[in-house]
Design brief:
Helices cover 19% and strands 28% of the residues. It is an alpha+beta fold. The chain has 2 domains: 194 residues, Pseudouridine synthase (2-Layer Sandwich), CATH 3.30.2350; 106 residues, Structural Genomics Hypothetical 15.5 Kd Protein In mrcA-pckA Intergenic Region, Chain A. Strands 1, 12, 13, 14, 15, 18, 19, 20, 21, 22 and 23 form an 11-stranded mixed sheet that branches. It comes from Candidatus Wallbacteria bacterium GWC2_49_35. InterPro entries: PsdUridine_s_RsuA/RluB/E/F_cat (IPR042092), PsdUridine_synth_cat_dom_sf (IPR020103), PsdUridine_synth_RsuA/RluA (IPR006145), RsuA_PseudoU_synthase (IPR050343), S4_RNA-bd (IPR002942), S4_RNA-bd_sf (IPR036986), TruA/RsuA/RluB/E/F_N (IPR020094).
Length: 318
């Protein structure tokens, strides 16, 4: 699919493809939270509560951390809402502070309130939320379709017209491809996966084949790889992260990004007065698709994006 006779190879030495993250959040206990610290994967009850009180009297009660326990499902309330795919962490904070979340019948306004997702009853606006079965699919988007849930105009088409089950099952895209672009889109109802793939801190590499109307010279390739100033998703000026660009053939490039700004590649080429005439994303992390599978979707596992590339996968036509 990619021309192996690469004429130019410009790589930035800056940046990193690693992913960072903080697995724990801090919680204060005692009067502020009104709840003892989780212990052994569960909050203290009965005699345990008395221990906490004794600890306060003896000068204890120092802040402790709530680390997510995958086996017991213990974490801070705002993280629990995200893990349960109710909403993003930011939206979860607004729900909690707005008094719209109850745990075991009590309205909780503390973002750091420790909960056990497998045992505590969590309700948002009166509706109980439970763990959903997570789904993950890869879709080879054709050009001419928007990635968003709702079309921007009456005549606009979205990818959900091609994969209607994805909308019915609440599968959201991890990042977007603009209407004119085509290629790999990952969709899921797992907010943590979506954030890992396309969140603001994500450094997962995305690979594109780009065709332009004018070639870039060596100096422009160097500048492109080092980062250029473009308009961000909110209209602000942003310098792009260092990236990789390779000249494959006349007016054909491979671009590798670890950033997710709206129409980023098109804006980066426009910086040099060059227009992108075709853009195909063929890989995210380790997961690849073939150009000939346009309109196909297939089920995937999260580790196929961050682990070894999938081989011989069966694709379903839509």
């Amino acid at each position: 699919m990619i021309n192996k006779d690469i004429k130019k190879d410009v790589k930035s030495t800056k940046g990193s493809a690693g992913r960072g993250g903080n697995a724990s959040v801090k919680q204060g206990y005692g009067k502020r939270s009104g709840r003892p610290a989780p212990e052994d994967g569960r909050g203290e009850r009965g005699a345990g509560a008395k221990k906490a009180e004794d600890g306060k009297k003896s000068g204890g009660g120092a802040k402790k951390s709530i680390s997510y326990n995958a086996h017991g499902g213990v974490c801070a309330l705002y993280r629990a809402l995200s893990k349960l795919s109710v909403c993003s962490r930011t939206a979860a904070k607004e729900l909690i502070l707005g008094g719209r979340v109850r745990v075991n019948g009590t309205v909780i306004n503390d973002l750091m309130y420790g909960v056990c997702m497998g045992k505590d009853k969590i309700k948002v606006d009166g509706t109980e939320v439970k763990e959903k079965k997570h789904q993950y699919i890869a879709f080879n988007k054709p050009a001419g379709y928007e990635t968003s849930l709702g079309a921007s105009g009456k005549s606009a088409k979205t990818i959900y017209e091609l994969i209607p089950f994805a909308k019915a099952n609440g599968l959201n895209p991890a990042g977007k491809l603009d209407k004119e672009s085509r290629g790999l889109i990952l969709l899921s109802n797992d907010n943590n996966f979506l954030n890992e793939v396309s969140g603001g801190d994500s450094k997962l590499a995305k690979f594109y084949i780009v065709k332009s109307n004018i070639d870039l010279d060596d100096e422009q390739l160097e500048e492109f790889a080092s980062g250029v100033v473009i308009k961000g998703s909110s209209g602000e000026s942003v310098k792009t992260r260092p990236c990789t660009i390779r000249h494959l053939a006349e007016k054909v490039f491979e671009v590798v990004l670890s950033q997710d700004i709206n129409r980023q590649i098109r804006k980066m080429f426009e910086y040099f007065g060059v227009k992108v005439v075709d853009l195909f994303r063929y890989r995210v992390g380790k997961l690849k698709i073939d150009e000939g599978t346009e309109g196909a979707y297939f089920n995937i596992k999260p580790e196929e994006v961050s682990g070894a590339p999938a081989e011989g996968r069966t694709k379903k036509k839509v």
